[in-house]
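seq as requested:
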Amino acid sequence: MSNLVILESPSKAKTVKKYLGAGYDVIASTGHIIDLPKSKLGVDVENDFTPQYVNMKDKSDVIKELKKHAKSSETIYLATDPDREGEAIAWHLSHLLNISENAPVRVTFNEITKSGVQYGMSHPRTINTNVVDAQQARRVLDRIVGYKLSPFLWKKVRRGLSAGRVQSVAVRIIVDRENEIRSFKTQEYWSIDAKLLAASSKKAFAAKLTEVDGQKAEIADKAQADDILKRLENAEYVVSALKRSQRKKQPAPPFTTSTLQQEASRRLSFQARRTMKAAQELYEGVDVEGVGAVGLITYMRTDSLRISDEAKTAAAGLIKELYGAEYLPETPRNFKSKNNAQDAHEAIRPTDVTLTPEKVKGSLSGDQYKLYRLIWERFMASQMQNAVMDTVSADITAAGCLFKASGYSVKFDGFTKLYEESREGEDSQSGMLPKLDKGEKLKPEEVLGHQHFTQPPARYNEASLIKTLEENGIGRPSTYAPTISTILDRHYVERETGNQLKPTALGEVITELLKDHFNNIVDVKFTAKMESDLDDIENGERNWVDTMRRFYGGFSKTLEKAEQDMEGKRVKVPDEQTDIVCEECGKPMVIKIGPYGKFLGCSGFPDCKFTKKIVVETKGSCPKCGKKMLAKKSKKGKPFYGCEDYKNCNFMTWDLPIDEKCPECGSSMFKKTGRQGMIYCAKEGCGYKRPLDAKESKSDES
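struct tokens:
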């Protein structure tokens, strides 16, 4: 008889089978096989919140197959994913296949490599019931919130709506930011900037006014700026102080789930869901030419920064070989994880650093290669020497005014030779000041006042929302991507230009309703506390049933009061006004939000039921037929652009049509963002293209 190994993913099963060889039968459960029923609450709130699990209908064939294989197996190993969901699936499998909870048959693989699989198989353990309880508590908690709150929203707003423990907080965060933007009062302010010339250089350098008569320079309007500029006429500019120093810059730590999603969003323009799909494929195993099926990265759902000693040693050897011993720090780097991090897994890293991105490129899809390169470079850089900068700052005085100038040059590039973390809104431009001496007189080439206006806070994009959720302790690594997908799919939030997340009228109405009647559900601190309680359950420090009792006692009373307060009341989702006229009755059309997103409906409803799709024209024209290009969205909400004559012309693109004509053929140009960003002509046979400049690259950022 053979041994049976059950995993979640068929592709991972294929890779693991290669390493286990004869004597092992490896099959996949394809995720959960048992869950709460879809048609009812499925939780006995009167009897310790006992879940009423049922076999999932769409998994009946899988369940038959699992039982068939189990009957003919000597030992059954449960090798589902190494996280809460995986532990719960293993627990459900043990009940389905009549495996004792005390049997040491639970194995986990941090990486799908030969050594990783062999280590996991040689260290079986019993199922961790604390982890199972934490998953069970989360599942029951989310079910109660969803099944009790959603009908309330159906009655008070409209049918088909849903609320969720994490999703509702995420929407509230986005709504609160939108309210900040609306209430923001723009204020004028001025700066005074000088371009100064030193005797040692023919190129002027920039200096900024920071103080006037020993006080911080706060210039409110043009009149104040003109007064200072008049004062500076014919003034003598003197270097009053110089400070030279060295600054060391440390590399960023290897990726966690959150930081991977943020960096992939900034660098690759990947949505969180796209990032996690590619990461899952890299973890489960890819057929690499000359190597075979191998998992290229460690487990991708983690918030730990821990790295194994073996991985550090391997990285050090390759760094020395590729770059030289001077690029290695004196001792291997350790990065400290956050206090609430789960340390069961390492940070996300390559399983074999010698499989460089270029070696595996031919075996990977485009998304897999881009993400693997990002992970490989980030990990290798994290084990490299600091970069060293020679810095200089200068104080320059003129007529009682103080200007400051600074610059740096790279003394040793260190880890930046390979990788440097991108940052939101970072200005990468820098330069070195010319040789300056204290007391030196400088020639003012230009001294100008510049008008500015304070800007409201930016809307969230996926990267900044994930960062905010993580910083506030809301959700865990596995929840960020599905949470964002859910709030977009439910049309509570929509993507604007540059991937900004903007609440819809529906999202705002629901958020205000929940704030008024279920404030805890959309309260950031309350939700973070619940997340902390789930961690305590996993660590064996809290009982899951007691946690549910405490939550449900307050929640049920709040629900009862909300039902009473809203008796006979409904909340209307405001329609967005347009200047489009109804083709049937002549009344104005309004933008409404339905189950499938926004559409145009007649304001005379229900007397007139005319509707039509929303058409958004772009600045460009179709390179095939010359007609208008329309902005559209895929079924998953990803924006794309297609010709308005979709019946006769099949041209479509993911890249933005822009208001610029090709200098060679006169056709509309398109803008491709990301690492290979460019402005290009899509007309067949033309081929014109040019790289994005810095300003064009930033125009799509949020």
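Residues 145 and 403 are 58 Å apart (CA to CA).
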